[in-house]
Amino acid sequence: AFVSHHFIHDCNVMICPVVLCSHLLCQYTMFALPHPSHSYSRPYSIQSFQDALDPRLKSIRDDRGYSYADIISIRPDLLPGYDDKVKAFFEEHIHNAEEIRYILDGSGYFDVRDTSDKWVRIHIKKGDLMTLPEGIYHRFTCDETDYIKAMRLFIGEPIWTPFNRPQEDHPSRAKYVKDYVEEKKE
Ligand code: KMT
Asked: Which of 130, 140, 159, 164 gets mutated to test ligand 1 (max ligand atoms within 8 A of its CB)?
């Protein structure tokens, strides 16, 4: 059964933990305040940094070592190979690294499995920064507006490869289960 939870997070606080899996992911609501774009040292393909002017974004990037950034727009006319890509985004999968998205415009749904393997739906929208830990099962879909523009952040050289479920023997999955699922049972 598909269990969908709608999280409204208009709270103007720095960190807004998601209720069902507060130790699994953080959502940040960012303020749009001016910040000089030249202080970002290594965005490979930033098209419009004016969209990401929150000084707290810089401090989070510095603190967590997010050295890479680029921007993806998901809309049929903006994303080459749209049909195949949105299909792949919505296949349940893991990555072998943390997934970090700062939403510059639009909105969409990230679905994540909680520790009981139930779906939790997260509605992310402009101004949100969301991180998913390595090895968590998840998927993404646009919402009714069919448009989202996100900064993809990464520690080091980016790897976007999805490993579709099942991946129980994948080292990243094993690490996730050990760190989050088993931990929670104790
Ligand atoms: C991904 O890796 O799933 C994506 O980049 C799509 C979602 S970004 C809002």
From this structure: 140
Domain containing 33 equals 13-185
Peptide bond before residue 80 is cis, with ω within 30 degrees of 0: no
Instruction: Give the separation between CA 59 and CA 28, rounded to whole angstroms.
Output: 12
Tell me whether residue 44 is in a domain: yes
The string of pLDDT tens digits covering residues 55-68 is: 677 777 788 888 88
Position in ligand 1 atom list of the atom nearest CA 108: 9
In a domain, 2, yes or no: no
How many whole angstroms from 99 Cα to the centroid of ligand 1? 9
Residue 19 lies in a domain: yes
Question: What is the pLDDT confidence band of residue 156, given thresholds at 50, 70 and 90?
Answer: confident
CA-nearest residue, atom 9 of ligand 1:
150
Token representation of residue 122: 């997260």
Which residues, at least 6 apart from 163, have a Cβ–Cβ distance to it below 8 Å?
Answer: 93, 94, 95, 96, 170, 172
Nearest CA to ligand 1 atom 3: 89
This prediction has a pTM of 0.76
Report, as an integer, the average pLDDT of 155-169: 94
Residue 7 lies in a domain: no
Report the domain count for the chain. 1
Residues with C-beta less than 6 Å from any ligand 1 atom: 72, 89, 101, 108, 140, 148, 150, 152, 160
Does the pLDDT value for residue 88 go beyond 50? Answer: yes
